[in-house]
Amino acid sequence: MAKINQPENFEEALQELEQIVSQLEKGDLPLEKALESFQRGVELSQYCQKSLTDAESTVAKMMTDKGDVELDREVMND
User: Fold this and answer.
1) C-beta separation of 48 from 18 below 8 A
2) For 18, which of 28, 36, 43, 59 is 20 to 30 Å away at the CA?
C-alpha cells in the first residue's frame, strides 16, 4: 500500500476528514475502499488531535512566559 502524504496543515486535514466521514456515512463504498477510507480518517484524526494539543501547549507556554494567568485546562477542553 502506498504511503499517503501528510496534510499541509490542520485545516486541510480537517477538510479531508470531513469528506471521508461524509462518504462513510453514505454507506455505499465497497468494503475495501471503506476500510482504506476509515484508516485514512484515523490518521487524519490523530494529526488533527496532535495539532490541537501542540497549539494548546504553545498558547499555555506563551501565557506563562508573559506572567499572565494560568490557563484552566478544563475551560480549554470545552
Assistant:
1) no
2) 59
Query: Are the CB atoms for 63 and 69 separated by under 8 Å?
Result: yes
Radius of gyration of the chain from Cα atoms? Answer: 17
Alpha-carbon distance of 40 to 26, in angstroms, equals 17
State the burial class of residue 72 (Cβ atoms within 10 Å of its Cβ: 0-12, 13-18, 19+).
exposed
CB 15 within 8 A of CB 40: no
**Phi-psi label, residue 3: left if phi above 0, alpha if psi -120 to 50, beta otherwise:** beta
What is the reported pTM?
A: 0.76
Q: What is the helix, strand, coil percentage profile of the chain, to 5? A: 70, 0, 30
Calculate mean pLDDT across residues 9-32.
97
Q: Please tell me the total number of residues recorded for the chain in this structure.
A: 78
